[in-house]
Amino acid sequence: MSTKPRGRLVHRKTALFGVNREYADALEHTLTRAQRERDSTRTALTHATAWSERLPAAVQTLARLAAGDLDEHDPGSTLANAILTLIGEDLLAAVEISQGDPAGALQRDTTFNENARPIATTVQLGDCAVTCTWQPAANAGRDTAELVESLCAAVACSLAAVTTARSKRDVVTQLADERALRRHQALRDHTARAAALVRVTVDEQSAVAHRELYGRLAWSAALADTAIALERIAHANGGQAYHLADRDFRLLVDADNAEQARDQAERALADQDPLIFQVTQVDQ
After folding, report:
1. Which of 34, 82, 87, 101 has the most CB atoms lying inside 10 A of its own CB?
2. What domain range includes position 118?
3. Based on the domain organization, do 227 and 246 belong to the same domain?
4. Is 110 exposed, middle or buried (0-12, 13-18, 19+ CB in 10 A)?
5. Are 137 and 266 found together in one domain?
6. Is residue 270 domain-resident?
7. How does pLDDT run along the chain (284 residues), one tens digit per residue?
8. Are 149 and 110 in contact (CB under 8 A)?
């Protein structure tokens, strides 16, 4: 009587641990992946709290870039530091930024290792590219990588916009045009950064007299000197200078500095005889 139950028990064990082994392996793999995704999501949520505190500074940096208020020679370093500061060096090991022709479609890509952890994130718009190298031990998954991709996309688009704007600057003064002014006004409105406009115009009769007396080349040189002075004043007051027409300039500055910028412009342009400049603060 004891032999039959023992035989049935052995048969059931064989069925349980033999036939169902593949199912058990698959279940273990699924549970491991779910745990890894849970840990990644938890990491993203933990960082999100810190990111929300550091985000305003990063947005401000992007706004400064779009307004042309970054180092003309190397804005990439400033933006790379902004990304590292926002995301954190516990996740990112390095950020590299390159500028160039922005023609092309926006491309986003993140490569992952065998443990589904990100290795590198690259976002490219033409020759404007942002590449992030992740820390080898970064406990991050696809959700965190997507957040980083979105930030890199914003940076790439900002670089492209600045590159395009600079290519369309006035040949003589190298100042941005009216389209750039409108775009930067809209950006300031979007970021709730109060701004004011200062208008600088050259009196028409004095301009005619200057060209007749000194010639066209000297007139271009005078415009270039004016642009240098206005750009320096605009930057000192939180903004940028623009060349709208032959004799018409604008300074987009922080609202609190509008009166100061106007006074500085008047003093800077007072000695350019025989040119007569009119400097006024205007409503946007």
Report:
1. 87
2. 24-167
3. yes
4. buried
5. no
6. yes
7. 444 444 444 444 444 444 456 655 665 666 666 565 656 656 555 555 556 666 666 666 665 555 555 555 567 787 888 888 888 888 899 999 888 877 778 899 999 998 888 999 999 988 889 999 999 988 788 888 888 898 888 888 777 766 655 555 555 677 888 888 888 888 788 777 889 999 999 998 898 888 888 887 888 888 888 888 999 999 999 888 998 888 899 999 999 999 999 999 999 998 877 889 999 987 65
8. yes
